[in-house]
């Protein structure tokens, strides 16, 4: 594994799962592996879980960790080639990235979709320049079209809580006041399609995810029908892909409440967080006995630690 940007970068999903569970049992098992190795986490966007869990994952492996909020601490970056840099951006990403690469052994990058140009976002223009020019392994901490550390943790969580071999897992859209990226749903669908779970994606018409992630999966536009007999409900908002970046609906009938959970098979409720309560999900559901959002967030530590361990193993 050279970089970690999607489930497809893993040499073996089963081995990665086993490693994550091994690390959960004994987080300090490889605490000298990362000695004298530096993990540098570059954030273009806000974060709580990714920032804390990925930093702790590096520390658990004995790494030195630097966290860099590039928009606060660094120079404003030009990311386009051929631009005459006479504006408000003193530095080009083409210099910043190789320089950052000289100060570390592994880079984590968070750079959300900008919704300015679908092609730029879906070609992953920012993280791809880190991959092309940093000279060290790059780990996605949510890029424009995927959030693989989250999806890995989601898979771990479902494996921990499932009560049958092939659970029914439902990804449901829910309303939100802002236009959010498709990265989490894309990544969740792509990752879940690597398992033998029964996966259902439900959302209003117009919110179809990109075909490259859905494959031959067809969405269910009737949320109640989708929820019938479900074992896991994974709620998330995302802006439209086809009408790129647009908010087409704020229909609060899609907010996950006891009404929808009542037709499930006593389903667990999941969300990557942060979550807008009473937009995405009612207080009673997220505070209820079936909500596993905190154990899900806890597993972010072990998905990150497993990825870092695999990358460090290649440096021995
Ligand atoms: C892990 C999720 C990160 C991000 N979430 C947000 O940007 C939420 C912001 C908000 O609720 O205003 C997203 O939806 O991709
Ligand atoms: N789920 C997740 O990545 O949370 P943060 O955006 O707080 O890191």
TrEMBL record:
Q: Which GO terms describe its molecular function?
A: amino acid binding; ornithine carbamoyltransferase activity
Pathway(s) it belongs to = Amino-acid biosynthesis; L-arginine biosynthesis
**What Pfam families does this protein's entry cite?**
OTCace (PF00185), OTCace_N (PF02729)
Q: Where does N(2)-succinyl-L-ornithine bind?
A: 142, 176, 236, 276
State whether keyword Amino-acid biosynthesis applies. yes
Is Transferase there in the keyword field?
A: yes
Which annotated residues bind carbamoyl phosphate?
Answer: 47-50, 75, 110, 147-150, 272-273, 300
The Aspartate/ornithine carbamoyltransferase Asp/Orn-binding domain covers 184-310
Where is coiled-coil annotated?
A: none
Please indicate which superkingdom the organism of origin belongs to.
Bacteria
| InterPro entries per the UniProt record, alphabetical | ArgF'-like (IPR043696), Asp/Orn_carbamoyltranf_P-bd (IPR006132), Asp/Orn_carbamoylTrfase (IPR006130), Asp/Orn_carbamoylTrfase_sf (IPR036901), Asp_carbamoyltransf_Asp/Orn-bd (IPR006131)
Q: Report the EC code(s) recorded for this entry.
A: 2.1.3.11
Q: Which reaction does it catalyse?
A: N(2)-succinyl-L-ornithine + carbamoyl phosphate = N(2)-succinyl-L-citrulline + phosphate + H(+)
**Gene Ontology BP term (one):** citrulline biosynthetic process
Keywords for the protein's UniProt record, in alphabetical order: Amino-acid biosynthesis, Arginine biosynthesis, Transferase
Q: Locate the Aspartate/ornithine carbamoyltransferase carbamoyl-P binding domain: which residues?
A: 2-160
Q: Function of this protein?
A: Catalyzes the transfer of the carbamoyl group from carbamoyl phosphate to the delta-amino group of N(2)-succinyl-L-ornithine to produce N(2)-succinyl-L-citrulline. Is essential for arginine biosynthesis.
Q: Family per UniProt? A: Belongs to the aspartate/ornithine carbamoyltransferase superfamily. SOTCase family.
Q: What does the annotation say about its assembly with partners? A: Homotrimer.
State what protein this is by name.
Answer: N-succinylornithine carbamoyltransferase
Q: Which gene encodes it?
A: argF'
